[in-house]
């Protein structure tokens, strides 16, 4: 048996859209033919910002990196990069899935 490695995403069977956020109907074509898929753990930083004034449960974690990560399947998602040196992050840096957080969702770290 092979262990599945990665995190959940969603796939529209009609238009082939893949996204990380849960959906009941496809935001692209409106279809309800949605299936759960596993997204690969590897990705790269598509864009990012360093947050210096957080709010809510993130207020005490500043500064932190808020990034849009592009997975190997070309799915883009907003995430927090943990264990990242805010002075070393750059667009194109390789990252990998670390864990799911109940309040944030998928969390990544430098690869």
From TrEMBL:
<dbReference type="Pfam" id="PF01796">
    <property type="entry name" value="OB_ChsH2_C"/>
</dbReference>
<dbReference type="InterPro" id="IPR002878">
    <property type="entry name" value="ChsH2_C"/>
</dbReference>
<dbReference type="InterPro" id="IPR012340">
    <property type="entry name" value="NA-bd_OB-fold"/>
</dbReference>
<feature type="domain" description="ChsH2 C-terminal OB-fold">
    <location>
        <begin position="39"/>
        <end position="96"/>
    </location>
</feature>
<dbReference type="InterPro" id="IPR052513">
    <property type="entry name" value="Thioester_dehydratase-like"/>
</dbReference>
<protein>
    <recommendedName>
        <fullName>ChsH2 C-terminal OB-fold domain-containing protein</fullName>
    </recommendedName>
</protein>
